[in-house]
Amino acid sequence: MAEFSRRTKDVNILTGDPKKAIVAMIVPITIALVIQTLNNMIDSVWVAGLGSTALAAVGVVFPIFFILVAIGNGIGIGASQAIARRIGAKDTEGADKAAVQGVMLTIAAGVIMTVVLFIAAPYILVAIGGADYLDECLAYAYPVILGCIVFFMSGYLTNLLRSEGAAKRSMNIQILAAAINIVLDPIFIYIFGWGLMGAAVATLLAMFISLLICVYWYKIKKDTYLKLSFSGFRFDRVICKDIFSVGLPAAMEMLLISVTSMIMNIIVVGVGGTDGVAIFTSAWRIINMLMIPMMAVSQAMVPVCAASYGARRVDRIDTTYKYAVKLILLVMIAITAVTLIFAPQICVMFTYSDNTAGLRDGMVEMLRIMVLALPLMGLGFVSSGFFQALGMGMKSLISTLFRNLLQIPICIYLATFGILSYIWVGAATAEIFGSVVMGFWGFLLLKYMLREWKSHGGSPAE
């Protein structure tokens, strides 16, 4: 009775019709991802006014920033599936406990990473190319490092809200953070004269203010489904293992993708030099924007499928997975078609100056080759979210590892022909093949689950 009295509209949607739940989650997550992507560009836009050295320093520090995002989101995804599964099982107390365990794990990880990175930052930045402007790199890096807990908690609370179906609230705090960052950046960088440090502090403060909104919802207004009580807190080995079984592989996936991108830069520069890297990084930035819908579906899959899994409704898991696959295939086919037609116009935004106009044809060529992989990449992303929802984080990591490791040798071999377009074909082929294998694995697992469920008295959904 207590569980029913606490149920919110978001939880009712999360545990109701899977198709409606997926759609209700996808739209705000998509908007949030777009805002997050734009927010990541804000610092670069304002810092550009400080000169090329400052802009280069931001680029050098980015891997450290990415590590923080990966760890925060990793713990958040791990906790999200653990919480949603308990919500689906109507285990209110267990869901609350898992949420609190996630908060404390996030804080502990933040403290550890703050100490480690504060000591190691100068050595890391020198190793990745910041030796000539180390002071500028540290001016931007140290506020970020000292704000580790804020960055981690931002990723965690975003996923915490989604775990109870409150994707709109998650979207709202990300929009708020971006808006505050846009306002504070020029003030801190130029008016206060803090330069690079100002850019980092503005980002940190924007995130901190958005976190205060979350604290207000959970601890003061108390209108969320989950209740966070830290009275008599002790780490629970079972719940921590549940969170880490998905959270650590999820964080490793993000880091793996980043490492693969670095290796691809090395391969490309060997064939196309500086122009080749400019083509690759600029076109890939566009592709990352086009991939937002598949990332949104993947993230929506985690709480929706996890809630059904907790309720032992394999029929709902079946409906969710198949509906998500159909939806993302249709969306990505449409995006692919539009991109193929308007690729020259899309690339103009990166090649409008006389200095970059010569890169336009190469960007258009890469974009048209790579977008052909998008529909089936969507299948891979949905399958990744499916594995994470079921607590099978290693399956998701193995799939991502396979897809990325396959890409590197193929592209290295094709690079021996000395033609950039061959590298794009190799990358697209690896993405397609890896995603198909991942999707096939997902459907096999689903088929097995349905067979087992029916053998124990389950019945297909009406």
Task: Kindly describe this structure.
The protein has 16 helices and no strands. It has 462 residues and is mainly α. The chain starts with a helix and ends in a 7-residue tail after the last helix. The chain folds into two domains: 1-235, no CATH class; 256-456, no CATH class. 85% of the residues lie in helices and 0% in strands. The longest helix is centred in the middle third of the chain and has 54 residues, at 237-290. α10 packs across α13 (360-370) and α10 packs parallel to α15 (393-415). The relative contact order is 0.12.
Structure described in brief:
The chain has helices at 2-6, 9-14, 18-47, 52-88, 92-130, 134-146, 148-163, 167-191, 195-221, 237-290, 292-310, 314-347, 360-370, 374-389, 393-415, 420-455.
What amount of the residues lies in strands?
under 5%
Structural class: mainly alpha
What's the end-to-end separation, in Å?
Answer: 27 Å
Question: Could you estimate the helical fraction of the residues in percent?
Answer: over 70%
Number of strands: 0
Query: What's the structural domain tally?
Result: 2
Count of separate DSSP helical elements: 16
**Averaging pLDDT over every residue, what do you get?**
88
Question: Radius of gyration over alpha carbons?
Answer: 22 Å
The major sheet is characterized as: none
Shape: globular
- Uncertain segments are none
Summarize the helix and strand pattern as letters: HHHHHHHHHHHHHHHH
